[in-house]
Amino acid sequence: QFQLVESGGGSVQTGGSLRLSCVASERSFSTYRVNWFRQAPGKERDRSDFVAGVNWSGDRTYYADSMKGRFTISRDNAKKTVVLQMMSLGPEDTAVYYCTADPDPAAGVPAVGPRVWGQGTQVTVSS
Asked: How far apart are CA 99 and CA 120, in angstroms?
């Protein structure tokens, strides 16, 4: 099983932007769909909220309603990287952000195996 490493979190003021990256350790990452979740303070990781997702090839993206128009997800399989660009941040966006990976059957691989989680990166937005 490969590993995911997130980076790019930090502290910003309301209205600011951050760019989160998720880098995988192996090329098999290219057959996985990737989602970003966020764990708000006081919530368990398994109850994290969906933020955005991208399919294995990068031509399909998905967003939670509150992120549409503010967040953009993209991937570069050659670099084994998924990026989440976040704009117009507000205090409600404060959370630990995790990237996850699941096999994408659309890539011709079986949908088996546990979800891979990164270690998370903290995003703090102050008013």
From this structure: 7
